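Module 6 notes. Inverse folding takes a fixed backbone as the condition and produces residue identities as the prediction. Think of it as a translation problem where the source language is geometry and the target language is the twenty amino acids. Below is one complete input and output pair. Work through it position by position during the lab.
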């Protein structure tokens, strides 16, 4: 039952937006007159193209698993329910609400811009192996050659940090002090720090860690949170195989990044071109 409710709510939103924006008119989503009609709700026609579009949107929640015939029937029934509610909303003139009109206007901008990018811009974009290799040559340390396991104690003042250093020198457990005195969320794990996104810690931390031996802790480091004391629990050099495996993933991300940059460049160039032929008036002083 819960899954049906989620489908109904999500689908209703898509149907309402599409209908009022003009994507789902009485002829359905497809402009082809030969498209197979699956249902009629009043004067609203639901076509195979409509069902295909709806199932396509839900595939992302199913990890691209295809719909079986019974699930497609259920989806069609859900679309019919959505159309009935949409028609009732129109009879109540809810689509005339200025707030709804604003939301739909912004939705139309977003939808058509995405369609322009996917249909017009993306086919023009190519990222070559050389592009990726050139990017890698400019960022040779993109993949750290080693992994480290760190613990931290974060406090607000330098005086607190110095007091903790005294306790550590006296033989206190780093993990115990982290749990008791650290203001970082890592305190619940004895100060254990999760590997950072991208594999690198902030520069000030990296510099200190590079000089530590396993089992050593640092002097207090001034950070955005306050003062941090780092403990190096373990250090492991990555094998060539591990680096090679990571490199393949990194190359995929670089390709995606370069593709996005090229799309942005084309879009910016197009915007500047359109500005030359489009009257634009901007009233910054009216912004509230």
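Target side of the pair, the amino acids:
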């Amino acid at each position: 039952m819960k899954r049906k409710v989620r489908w109904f709510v999500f689908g209703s939103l898509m149907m309402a937006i599409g209908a009022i924006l003009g994507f789902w008119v009485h002829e359905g989503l497809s402009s082809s007159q030969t498209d197979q009609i699956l249902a009629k709700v009043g004067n609203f026609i639901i076509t195979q193209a409509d069902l295909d579009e709806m199932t396509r949107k839900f595939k992302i929640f199913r990890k691209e698993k295809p719909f079986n015939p019974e699930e497609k029937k259920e989806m069609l029934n859900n679309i019919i329910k959505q159309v009935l509610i949409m028609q009732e909303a129109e009879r109540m003139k809810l689509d005339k609400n200025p707030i709804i009109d604003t939301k739909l206007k912004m939705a139309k901008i977003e939808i058509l811009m995405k369609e322009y990018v996917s249909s017009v811009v993306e086919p023009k974009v190519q990222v070559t192996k050389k592009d990726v290799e050139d990017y890698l040559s400019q960022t040779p340390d993109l993949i750290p050659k080693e992994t480290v396991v760190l613990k931290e104690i974060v406090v607000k003042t330098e005086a607190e940090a110095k007091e903790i250093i005294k306790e550590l020198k006296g033989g206190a457990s780093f993990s115990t002090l982290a749990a008791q005195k650290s203001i970082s969320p890592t305190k619940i794990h004895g100060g254990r720090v999760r590997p950072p996104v991208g594999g690198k810690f902030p520069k000030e931390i990296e510099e200190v860690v590079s000089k530590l031996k396993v089992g050593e802790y640092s002097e207090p480091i001034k950070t955005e949170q306050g003062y941090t004391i780092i403990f190096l629990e373990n250090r492991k050099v990555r094998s060539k195989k591990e680096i090679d495996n990571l490199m393949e993933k990194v190359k995929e991300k670089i390709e995606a990044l370069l593709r996005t940059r090229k799309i942005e460049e084309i879009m910016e160039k197009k915007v500047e071109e359109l500005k030359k032929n489009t009257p634009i008036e901007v009233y910054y002083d009216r912004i509230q």
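Reference fact for the lab report: The domain at 144-237 is CATH 3.10.50.40 (Chitinase A; domain 3).
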